[in-house]
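re: ur question from yesterday

yeah so i grabbed the chain u mentioned. its 297 aa long if i counted rite. heres the sequnce exactly as i have it in my notes:
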Amino acid sequence: MTWRSHVNFGLINTIELAEKNMSIGVYRNSIMSNLVIKIDTNGGEDALAEFISTKSTDGTKVTRERLDVGDVRVEALSSGEVLVIERKTWADLQSSLRDGRYKEQKARQMRSISDADGKLRVVYAVEGARVYDWKPGSAGNARGGVTPKHVDAAIAMTSVRDGIPVLRSSNTEHTADMILYLAKKLSTGDLSGAGHAVMASASGYAGFVKSSKKRANMDNGTTWQTMLSTITGVSAKKAKCVVDAYGTPMELFSAMNSEADTDGREKLLADIKCGDKRLGKALSKRIYNTLSGTDAN
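ran it thru and got these structure tokens back, copy pasting raw so excuse formatting
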């Protein structure tokens, strides 16, 4: 009797493919389970947290907690690398430039980068379309005349000078998709070492700026300089020039009070040299208006 062996090669191929896909799935899950995504407890992040939690199906741990820096913090547990995302709508960014929050937040971000020895990167995610109709003095304008040009300038300097990427997204769900994509790249090591590229910039920017975890390093002169640098249009360099001329707030207030009239007080700082330029009348007036509580408009 002759025995014939009937082998179902299609079944074998199917089994091999299934095993291959299973191993790939295990690999992917092991990569993503290396991640923790922490989202700030601010109510404004609720929708983002919902999108990320729903879309994250590969074992990534998603939590809500109060964050010192940024709105989202992605941590790769095996490498110790961290990605911080600062999320803003166009209106948020414009308002934060007006009230000084932008500089304060940037300072804490740059300090974190400087302290992290290349293990931390910061990314801005700006949601929504660019707004064209904000103009100084326009009816109902609550943002103090910060125009789209100012916002564009802040985005450009953040990207080019500070080395912090600024990503644009159409809405909150789009932002969630970008965050999950970057999280995957962080987990696979594709962002490894990238943090070193901005460390020098971060050290320079944050050298004088207040950090909530470095308060002991703040002397009176540095605190005064930091206060001035929160005023719109006053860079770290310009703040230092004012501090060099008037070492304390009391010195400046005394000099302003010695002027005969408001016009003299507004122009007091105009002739202070800062590099090869003067501070100028407009900035001098803005500093006076801010310190005196006078309506700049």
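noticed a couple things. The beta strands are 35-39, 61-64, 72-76, 82-89, 120-127, 166-169, 273-274, 277-278. also DSSP finds twelve helices and eight strands in the chain.
anyway ttyl
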